[in-house]
Amino acid sequence: MASALPYAPPSRKANSTIMSMQALRPTTRGTIGSGTTSSNGSFQRRTSLSSFPSSRSPSVMSQRRPSRSPNPPPIDTDRTSDPSTVLSKTPTSGVSSQHSSLSAPNKYSSSAHPARRLKSQYPRGDTENHVEYILVASFDIDKGPIMEHQYPVAITGDEHMLAELMLPDQAHVRNQDWTIFFLHKDTSQDEEEAEEKAERRRLRKAKKEARAALFESGNVDPLERVEGSEEDSSEEDEPEGGEGPPLIYVLNLVNTKQDKTAKRGAVVKAMAICTRHPFLHIYKPLLLLALEEYFKTPQPSTLAELYEAVNTMDLSLMPKLSILERHLLQASDNKDLFVEKFEQMIQMRMAEDKGEALDDMAAMSESPERRPGLVRNGTKAHVQQLIHSNYSVPRDTHEFETKVMYNGIPIPIKVPVAVSPETVGDFSLVKLIQTYNDPHVKSPIPFALHPHLTTGGVHTHPIIVLVNAMLTQKRVIFLGHNRPSGEVAEAVLAACALASGGILRGFTRHAFPYTDLSKIDDLLKVPGFIAGVTNPTFENHPEWWDVLCDIPSGRMKISSRIEQAPLTEGLANFQQQNPAYASATNVATSTSQAASDPTGDAAFMNDVIRSIAARHGEGVIRAKWRDWVVKFTRISAQFEESVYGASALYIGVEKAEPGNENVSGHGYVWPDDHAKFRELASNVNRIEGWRATRSYYSFKQDLVQLYNFRPLKALDLHHLHDRLRMTKLTPGASRDIYVAMERYTHSYDEICQLLAVAPESHAGLFYIALGLFHKDRDVRMRVVDLLERISDHEAGRHWWKALSRFEKLAFIRIRREAEAEMRAKLGGVERDIPADGDAMVLGRRMSFKTTATIASFGGKLLKLTHDASTVGCEMALNLYLPPKASAEKKVPVIFYLAGLTCTGDNGAEKGFFQSAASEKGIAVVYPDTSPRGLNIAGENDSWDFGTGAGFYIDATNPPYSTNYKMYSYITSELPSSLFSSFPELDSERKSIMGHSMGGHGALTLFLKNPGMYKSVSAFAPISNPINCPWGEKAFKGYLGEEKKEGWKKHDATELIGEFKGEFPALIDVGTGDNFYKQGQLLPENFEAAAKKSGNDSNLTLRYQEGYDHSYFFISTFGRDHIEHAAKYLFA
């Protein structure tokens, strides 16, 4: 029997006798041991289970009622937009070297795939069983229902009650019947497991912090395996949202065999499978075979064979999806959605079978290009190797296909990949809706009025009455007289899913898919239960229920004994604040039918019925109900804000653009204020009823947890998309929305979040693609960039394919114009665009790809990659855009060049330049220090030459002469690409600065290109490289030993002697810098040459006492360098 949380309102609070009535006592009859080791070798601990919830642990609701003025739940705000960036934060303490730039470079992932490593939902070698218990019960003429066997150990509890649940009323009159019920663990055992779980989490957190410290110090690669990394907080990846001990779901089969030798001529037996998986319907074929076998061999060995078979089911190739990915999969009918994840799982398994290293498997999981051997054959993919193995990708990615061998028979099993909360078993919303819709349409019977239930008046649709009853925590009974108990149980489970919408919780835990009259006393102690019964006696006791749903007749009744809704403070306040709409709040208690349908429920139900008539399928109907529940929660949040001034259903965060009202809004969107207050007024009773329920409190807790895992926190994408979809916007308002969407939606998870608010059932990308026709060219270009990112995305590519040909042609036209402009700027480099929009997204493009967006000092730090023709590889960089940046108000740019072994991340994460740059309104570019991944012989042999040590020169010595052209890349291709792609940047106002090798680069680039930069500054620059070991090694390798005269063209000390013009320079050197002491930097040579040539008038060279070469030094004086640049950039 399903169960409830121990909470109850004061008038119905469950007393402490519930558990004592369950008498959880040991049982020994027909069991195999009381605490033994099962045949698979795992120790089985006796578990205390009950069909009713324990009353020991108070729930959240029993501790407090709704606050009069709800406040958003407390959260830990984080300015980062992606949880994956946590490891990149600089710790307050950690290992620091004298030259902190001499560390292992961070690795970039430029693919449109999640940065996290792909995992299995049920990893191979996991000790948790699919099925925990198998039970057998039979009906004894003299004793009634009895328990025959329990395997692998006995469940301590009320054995007789379990047997009664397994043998429902009138089971003997049918050859076969199915029932489902739920069992609850003893809370004392759950407390022990919770403590163990908390300890495991604590250890994982400690390991993660230690790993972060190692990564930050440069002592470990981001993908390198460390002890415990395989566990990597799998339980902390996402919120669990549990309301108590996990339920045990029980699928039960009852068979009646005619036997003339038996009393009354028949034998009735039932077999049940107990599992923690809500998709328990997958075990139906196995139960049919096993119970038939048990009739032949009624021995524990039959149960053991079934137990072993189901627990050897291999689900290790079923990928684990994130919350957003699950939502996308559930909302889509596309059978290939996330097929890449199944292929990656297969490839990782094949690598594991061949004994490849973990790092190789990680690369396979993150790089689609490294997954050879996958062949798509029609709608089914398979991988075949020489070892004759065969792995198959499901024909439909909504279900994972596997097999269970039972008695030598391979039983095909399809397991749902994404399961919504409150979704248990295999039920049909279509069947439930049709059951109660047809009688209502043919012969409507007016309901007794109740403010919480009849929100559309006396002729409210019965399905709406049912959902209202569950949302407001009423007692609901499904009555199926002379119907199989399985049919009743299916209706209960469908109702739970209907009210939940995959969003709300608290229904199944208080649901009893099947119960009987003998348990009525216990049932009435459970608040807001949902129960299925077959005994017609229930109908004659309206004091037992609030809403009765009769399955045979398809009618619903509201009890004459139902408790009336109180006048709440929210209702009174709303009527007082909005007197013009006070009458609309009385629709639910009006005896006349509401002709205008203020709630929209009648129109919604008509749409659902039309979809059912058109055979749109179960998935479409579930998606529609999910939308209805989401809309209800969003309207509720708006109601709370309107009445109380704040909502517990909205977490206030720092806005991305606080001064821009067009993008700083949140919540549900109405066409106008009249429509808003009209709909709020018609929903006020339903909302106020819901606010006093456990599902409301669970939803508040879920929002807090989900917020922490939401990739994009600064924008309400749902609100912005609804404004595009539902309101008439000015060109300026729509421009702001499109620009914000493009600016802040970059990473894999951020795009998932955008797709989740633009499902295929709501026209997909149609309203976003309308930006391709905006009057503003900048908007059109930004929409092209956004759609391009989406088209590269694992899920987004399916949304892209669904766009109309008209929109794709507009996309191609705009892209061609941009490519033509880019070719002209880069000297005619040809990049043809395929005519087919689908094929186009597969080609190489010159536009930037954004792998992450991080909020920083009011602006955004973008992690970018692009294909750089100058160096012949993909280059990564960081770009900081201050909050003032816009196409109308362009901002100047500083290029920061990093030192030896560094990447574009070092300055961005450790230099603290963004603080001053944000205040001054300056963008900062952090390019990489060399090409990467070229596999040139010797480029990775030492830290001061090759990878991470490009020295910002164009190499002329083979084999580096082809690709090592960092001078041309920094001075030409990179700025040209940036200024074409980011109209916020002012190409006429540039400054340059750098550290160590980057200081050398900054000085030489400024001196070699008079007028290109407004100013220059450097931290501990390599000032005279032709006379220091670092420079001599680099110039010999890149320029050739025999061309030493040419080295002088890349030496700042030599160049300053010939320079003509203004030289606004700031240089800082630490006197505690070991490299300064060793003669690697030689700033004194540079200063002498500047004085000799007369170029020292605007040169400021400071020696900072005691400072070393590290980023502690740089971050201390970084603001000075930003202010130095600002003086000339804004002159």
UniProtKB/TrEMBL annotation:
Residues 1-124, 219-247 are annotated as: Disordered. InterPro entries: AB_hydrolase_fold (IPR029058), Actin_polarity_regulatory (IPR052809), Afi1_N (IPR012860), Esterase-like (IPR000801), S-formylglutathione_hydrol (IPR014186), Tripartite_DENN (IPR037516). One of its GO terms (molecular function) is carboxylic ester hydrolase activity. One of its GO terms (cellular component) is plasma membrane. The keyword Nucleotide-binding does not apply. Gene3D superfamilies: alpha/beta hydrolase. Residues 27-64 have a biased composition (Low complexity). Residues 229-241 have a biased composition (Acidic residues). GO terms for biological process: actin cortical patch localization; formaldehyde catabolic process. NCBIfam families: fghA_ester_D (TIGR02821). Pfam families: Afi1 (PF07792), Esterase (PF00756), SPA (PF08616). Residues 82-112 have a biased composition (Polar residues). The active site is at residues 996, 1073, 1109. Keywords: Hydrolase, Serine esterase. Residues 132-685 form the UDENN domain. This is S-formylglutathione hydrolase. Its EC number is 3.1.2.12. Belongs to the esterase D family.
